[in-house]
Amino acid sequence: MNENKLTALLSLLDDPTPEIYKRIENELTNLPISIIPQLEDYWLDSKNTILQERLEQVINKIQFSHVKKELINWGKSESPNLIEGAILVNKSYNPNLITEPIRKVIDKIKKDVWLELNNQLTALEKIKILNHFFYNIYNYQALSPNQPTNWDSDIGTVLSQKQGNYVIISIIYAGIAQELGIPVYGIHLTDSVLLCYVDKVDESSKKEDVLFYINPIDRGKVFGRAELQFLIESKKIVNRPKYYKAAENTSLIKRLVKHNISVYKKLKLTTYVPNFKDLYKSI
User: Which residues are CB-contacts of 92 (< 8 A; sequence separation ≥ 6)?
Assistant: First the structure.
């Protein structure tokens, strides 16, 4: 944008007329994220409190819009990466998140597990190795759902604290597995975050079958279809075939966003809720 036009728009941002202010805000919000350094410089030079407050709102909206577009593109990719999806959700309310430490921790766990893997191992043996490192060596665990916090979905914080809510723990577990070539995915079961180990039945048709199921909250416990059926019946919900099949990675990330909506409402941090709802509809 022409610098003179930008300056003119910013000079009107504190206009007392709501219609004018909203029009200016909308025009500024549609600017690319590369404009933010200029907006921050303008904020620093200004002594007008109202203008600074409104400029902060504009910057936040530009940052959220950028992350939302990234998450939409992520969901449209051929193989959406779970770790990257969780990072984008984190960035939606913490745009200055530094991702290098996150990748460093994930890559360290992956390397440790990879050194123990080989082509002769069965699917169950691979999961046992992953469980050993994830739960015994690195000591990751899920927090009680009765004690919600405003950080237990933040992938960066969870990786450093070694604990988080049941959704993010499942995402990290499955994300590490997938990056190692271990086909672990979520399933569609309502109000539960369980995983499954997928085996290709027919390479030509790309049909897949589930070998077994994994409970990432119970230290990666493995169980079969009969146990899953028992769990479904105990929930008193209609037993649907889709509950036994692998879900797309977008499903787990949507579950993470939905969890955030619930938790932030409980904690009365409602400022973030509209953005989370917007993200949920976009994935």
Answer: 64, 67, 68, 71, 275, 276, 279
Decide which of 146 and 140 is more confident.
Answer: 140
Give the model's confidence band at 17: pLDDT under 50 very low, under 70 low, under 90 confident, else very high.
confident
Query: Which of these, 267, 18, 10, lies nearest to 151 by C-alpha position?
Result: 267
Higher pLDDT, 115 or 1: 115
Q: Which long-range contacts (CB under 8 A, 24 or more apart) does 245-248 make?
A: 245/187, 245/188, 245/196, 245/210, 246/185, 246/186, 246/187, 246/196, 246/198, 246/208, 246/210, 247/185, 247/186, 247/187, 247/188, 248/80, 248/185
Do 109 and 47 fall into the same domain? no
Residues 64 and 134 in one domain: no
Quick one: 190 and 229 in the same domain?
A: yes
* Range 99-122 average pLDDT: 97
Based on the structure, what is the number of domains in the chain? 2
- pTM of the predicted structure, to 2 decimals: 0.91
**pLDDT tens-digit readout, 185-213:** 999 887 788 999 998 655 554 567 999 99
Domain containing 114 equals: 77-282
- 30 and 91 both lie in a single domain: no
- DSSP assignment string, 4-21: HHHHHHHHTTT-S-HHHH
E strands in 178-259: 184-186, 195-202, 207-215, 221-223
